[in-house]
């Protein structure tokens, strides 16, 4: 399996070459999400709302799992930069073992408390809640395989090899796109069918990832991780996991507020999030690229390349999200109307895209900064920024709600994203002189 050296070559070409497969993976997932939303949307707003409700807890699991993914990804990328094969093997094995334990624990919690978790969203629609719970039960075992797929993709990226993950993701997405309509309609499984299709696709992807990972990481070696390796992964992963878990928990509380406006509002946000992911395809790819790039170059003590990598990545992010902002501002109704024909859902969703669109450039600054600091081994900085201003969304939404109604929730998200992006960019400037010291300390 090919390993790419990110410490040499023209910086923009290296960043783009690393980011494109990640963007390709996101594009594949986005394509599947769109197609799936078409199929589920045909079942009505209640079906869309049920999947939207269950998805909050799926995202919560993935947020918790970032404790392992982020920490292992940072340590492996830095070890690759140092060319230390024994250290690489230790961190890979430690991450794999912790990942399994965490996945089994979270799935058990979902199975035991799923109904209570769905009920917390206060949808006041028993039929929708039952659909959401059914979807959650099917999705729970899927998360074990999804956890490993996410971990392997991050570790491949740490090696500079993002193409393999894209190919495996393409296989899973294609399979999902074939099975989803088959399970939903001819087999008559509805929402549960969508969940089963995702489960099967993740199992297949896991098989491919496992096979390719054995080749790359040489699991037949006898190198064993020690307690310090586990602690290092947890230490580096904890800030980002805390940030992502808090982000998801805040989203769940906001979803509870949204639920008071009816299932149309929940469906509108669900569709809005899917359309919004157009922007995060590129931003997410740049986030993963700058994290691996920075980690390798820091490990190789090439500080000038670290700085240039951030500048190049930021320019690309601003250009792309600026174009998406224009689309969201001028044709939001058309985008939402592709999925549902309910006027209320379309109106709420269009307002969501207009308001969120204003913040996309700043969101790109935050996510790129997130990847940059992760590569430096300083995940506490983006975590602190995110925690402080994400928590502010709830009081801000409550303060604005009497005047703006449901739009207050969208504005609380947009305003906090703007502030987070600006603060992240400021921290990058303030930390510029510290990078040399960090390189020497590795």
Automatic annotation (TrEMBL):
BP-aspect Gene Ontology terms: monoatomic ion transport
According to its UniProt record, which protein family does this protein belong to? Belongs to the multi antimicrobial extrusion (MATE) (TC 2.A.66.1) family.
- Per the record, the major location class is membrane
Q: What is this protein's function per UniProt?
A: Multidrug efflux pump.
**Superkingdom of the source?**
Bacteria
Subcellular localization is given as: Cell membrane
Upper lineage is:
Bacteria, Bacillati, Bacillota, Bacilli, Bacillales
Mind telling me which InterPro entries this protein's record contains? MATE_fam (IPR002528), MATE_MdtK (IPR050222), MdtK-like (IPR048279)
Keyword Ribosomal protein carried by entry: no
Q: Which organism is it from?
A: Exiguobacterium chiriqhucha RW-2
**Which membrane topology term applies here?**
Multi-pass membrane protein
Is the keyword Membrane assigned to this protein? yes
Return the CDD domains for the record. Answer: MATE_like_1 (cd13140)
For this UniProt record, the keywords arranged alphabetically read as follows: Antiport, Cell membrane, Ion transport, Membrane, Transmembrane, Transmembrane helix, Transport
Tell me which Pfam families the record gives.
Answer: MatE (PF01554)
Quote the protein name from its UniProt record: Probable multidrug resistance protein NorM
Spans through the membrane = 12-32, 100-121, 133-156, 168-185, 191-210, 236-258, 278-295, 316-340, 352-369, 381-403, 409-428
Task: State one molecular function term (GO).
Answer: antiporter activity
Cellular component GO terms held in the UniProt record: plasma membrane
């Amino acid at each position: 399996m090919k390993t790419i050296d990110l410490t040499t070559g023209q910086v923009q070409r290296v960043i783009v070459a690393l980011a494109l497969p990640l963007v390709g993976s996101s594009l594949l997932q986005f394509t599947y999400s769109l197609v799936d939303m078409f199929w589920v949307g045909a079942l009505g707003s209640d079906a869309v709302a049920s999947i939207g409700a269950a998805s909050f807890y799926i995202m919560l699991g993935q947020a918790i799992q970032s404790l392992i993914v982020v920490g292992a990804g940072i340590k492996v990328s830095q070890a690759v930069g140092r060319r230390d094969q024994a250290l690489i093997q230790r961190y890979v094995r430690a991450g794999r073992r912790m990942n399994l334990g965490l996945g089994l624990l979270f799935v058990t919690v979902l199975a035991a408390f799923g109904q209570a978790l769905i009920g917390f969203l206060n949808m006041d629609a028993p039929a929708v809640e039952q659909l959401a719970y059914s979807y959650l039960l099917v999705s729970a075992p899927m998360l074990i395989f999804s956890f490993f797929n996410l971990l392997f993709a991050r570790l491949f990226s740490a090696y500079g090899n993002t193409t393999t993950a894209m190919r495996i993701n393409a296989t899973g997405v294609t399979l999902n796109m074939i099975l989803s309509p088959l399970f939903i309609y001819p087999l008559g499984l509805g929402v549960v069918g969508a969940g089963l299709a995702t489960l099967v696709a993740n199992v297949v992807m896991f098989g491919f990832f496992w096979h390719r990972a054995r080749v790359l990481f040489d699991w037949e070696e006898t190198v064993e991780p020690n307690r310090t390796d586990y602690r290092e992964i947890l230490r580096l992963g904890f800030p980002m996991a805390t940030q992502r878990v808090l982000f998801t928990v805040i989203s769940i509380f906001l979803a509870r507020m949204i639920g008071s406006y009816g299932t149309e509002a929940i469906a509108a946000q669900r569709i809005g999030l899917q359309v919004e992911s157009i922007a995060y395809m590129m931003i997410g790819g740049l986030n993963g690229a700058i994290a691996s790039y920075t980690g390798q170059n820091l490990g190789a003590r090439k500080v000038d390349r670290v700085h240039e990598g951030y500048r190049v990545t930021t320019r690309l992010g601003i250009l792309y999200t600026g174009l998406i902002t224009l689309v969201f501002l001028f044709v939001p109704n058309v985008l939402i109307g592709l999925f549902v024909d309910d006027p209320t859902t379309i109106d709420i969703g269009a307002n969501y895209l207009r308001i969120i669109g204003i913040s996309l450039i700043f969101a790109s600054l935050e996510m790129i900064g997130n990847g940059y600091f992760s590569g430096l081994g300083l995940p506490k900085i983006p975590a602190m920024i995110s925690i402080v201003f994400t928590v502010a969304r709830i009081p801000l939404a409550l303060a604005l709600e009497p005047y703006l109604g449901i739009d207050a929730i969208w504005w609380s998200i947009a305003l906090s994203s703007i502030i987070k992006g600006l603060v992240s960019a400021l921290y990058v400037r303030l930390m510029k002189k510290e990078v040399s010291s960090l390189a020497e300390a590795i």
